[in-house]
Fold:
Amino acid sequence: MNFDKITKRIRPKEGERDNALKLFNHIKTYILESFGKESIIVGSVAKDTFLKEDMDLDIFVFFDPSLPKELLEREGLRIGKSTFNHFGSSYKIAYAEHPYVSGDIEGLPVEIVPCYKVASGRHIRSAVDRTPFHLEYVMEHLNDSQRDDVRLLKKFLKAQKLYGADSRANGFSGYLCELLIIKYNSFANLLAHAIQWERGVIIDMNGNGKGFEDPLVVVDPVDPTRNVASAVSLSTFSRFIEAARTVSETKDVRMFSGPRPGYQPVDAGTFVVIIFDIDVIEEVFYAQARKFVEHVVKECGDNGFTLFRHGVFSKGVMLDIEIGQLPEKEKHRGPPVEKYAHAEKFKQKHPDVFVEQDVLYTIRERKYVSIDDLINDIIVSQRGLGSSLKRASIRILKDQEAVNAIEKEIIFF
Amino acid sequence: MNFDKITKRIRPKEGERDNALKLFNHIKTYILESFGKESIIVGSVAKDTFLKEDMDLDIFVFFDPSLPKELLEREGLRIGKSTFNHFGSSYKIAYAEHPYVSGDIEGLPVEIVPCYKVASGRHIRSAVDRTPFHLEYVMEHLNDSQRDDVRLLKKFLKAQKLYGADSRANGFSGYLCELLIIKYNSFANLLAHAIQWERGVIIDMNGNGKGFEDPLVVVDPVDPTRNVASAVSLSTFSRFIEAARTVSETKDVRMFSGPRPGYQPVDAGTFVVIIFDIDVIEEVFYAQARKFVEHVVKECGDNGFTLFRHGVFSKGVMLDIEIGQLPEKEKHRGPPVEKYAHAEKFKQKHPDVFVEQDVLYTIRERKYVSIDDLINDIIVSQRGLGSSLKRASIRILKDQEAVNAIEKEIIFF
Structure:
């Protein structure tokens, strides 16, 4: 398969990166002159692995490791705010392991993040301290043609909704993409290997990591105690393999476009969308939405309902239901007859029992005859809802109304 | 619990057995004088363990073990037919391991069966040769009060539809009942033990049987290679335990009456009765009906339908259906993604696949949306039908019509 056409489409325009680096230099100079602090640009712009018109400046300001965390956070915020003010831009405070400042400067998204300047990736005091070493490693090992392959991989993963080591995609980080291309030399060769992957693949370029149990293990070359692919869930891992096979077989360039919004429910089923109206950061929202939808799926299974598919999107969850209506009575399995004490307890609860093979059964009223009743009950009693979703105002939409509500949404499965 | 009232009800009237033995003596004399053959009466009349007004004369005619089987069969039939003719009765030929003659003489059911006179239960040439030794063992070990306990046990098992080592009940033979009372001394003591039974109970009164793997093992004291309880299925075994517990707890004398005919379907389900119109001996009919209903239950499960209960009766099978209607589409599970070859094969068959966890799925048209379609298809293509049922003319009844059709039938589960 020839990826040249796609590469051309996603490679940044001449000068795009230079302009960004020029802006970074202005910021760097301001921070040095005003606060006496060194700073660097990290991330995909620094590594030249960003997709066309998809730049952001991740600026790390270095602090001495002897500085207490509270002071690092306070100083980091002071420098960040002051920088945005200096360039006449608004900003907001974002929260990762510690707070940082983000906003737009001259039309480019900029983040200003404080970090400790440590001796190596093994001596970090906070997760971000590792980032400068990642940058260093990638700059040393990635050549120019491989940069295009990283771009291809990122574009492919984005289209497949597998990009991002966050609770939205449970997927591949940018750094993971870079390491995979370093390991396999090219996107094409990565595909050739990935189609044969089985759970437990271990990529350990320096040969000193161990004890990881994730579906995909890529030992961080700058810190062997860390699996760079730890965010990749079993589903993401399997979907990547499946997508790699499909693109290898079909050579379909549409697998690099998208992700396409909306979802077309299976006809003849029932389609439900639950919308949580609340102001909360994306990472928290997706994490709680995922937890909630998995909880609903589990209760559906426990009560005899079945689903075609389920997913999360930026405002809630969707459920495409196969069997959503059941008879009023159900056959309820009890303990084996030979477990005397259990059998007696079951009979006390259910006076009418019968035996099949070695097991007691009874016929009982079904708790939920319709999946609507179940979903309402889950929501009313707040089962499976994280603390943020508990505060949300909740709407339940069905069938065509539900389809319409998500027609512009990207659904993550 | 005091069983005296029930014992009184089921114990034969004064003179009932004497009259039967008198008739047997006439028959015995006729066979000896006309054919020079010895004969004995075996079975529950001989052992005095029969229920009131429930007698039959099982007459065994002895032959020398040197006689070839074909001659034994021919001579046996000749003697049998001639005996019925002599007493002015009609007869028919029945078939067990070999053919025999049965009919009514002076109002009593009589069977005349040829057997070899062998040295011991271990030297038998045909299953019936063991019977005289069973008779001998029971006469030696059972006392008069225990005879009433055998009757109680038989009556209890009959009411619970667990009596008979045939394909109708998959249950307890008369000889098994006698051995259980010999082992446990009384019906009450048998119940006290049975409520605690677990699969694999071994009752080996002479301590020389082994290698049996049935739920209940009662080693034949006259032939240690044989499990007297081999016909007792796991369901029958478990139902007996369950019934023993219930009668012990409730002391309900109604547990000795019946079996009650008919079946009341669970409301809100679908009820189906399939009637096979054919003339075939009972043992074959029940065996094939059981095999068929189990086959239907399996196909129902494979296709997403669920059942409350199912059973067989003298003319067919019944299905009490919980979920008999399903959506037109179904979620179909494929192989794990990491099994490359299997996954590729699945995708060739199903172009639209998706991944959950590590497994491929597709949405496909359901083969059977209604259980009616499935049942019709099973019958049209004769799946699960034994050779006799294949020749039957078949009717399918539903709901009230189905309930009416079996209101006088005893259902065996």
User: Anything to note?
Assistant: The CA atoms of residues 144 and 391 of chain A lie 49 Å apart.
